[in-house]
Amino acid sequence: MDKNVNALDWTLLQSFSAVVETGSLSGAARKLGQSQPTIGRHVKQLELALGFDLFTRAPRGLVPTVAGLEIADMTRDMQSAATGVRLIADGKAGNLSGTVRITASVVTSHFILPRIIADMRQTMPEIQIDLVPSDTTENLIFREADIAVRMYRPTQLDVITKHICDQPMAVYAAKSYLDRIGRPETLEDAARLDFVGFDKSDLIIRVMTDLGLEATRDFFAVRCDQQAVHWELVRAGCGLGGAQTIIGDADPTMERILEGKMQLQALPIWLTAPQALHSNPRIRAVWDYLSEALAKQTEA
Question: Where are the alpha helices (DSSP H) in the chain?
Answer without folding.
Answer: 10-22, 25-32, 36-50, 66-92, 106-107, 113-123, 175-181, 187-191, 203-210, 227-235, 245-248, 275-278, 281-299
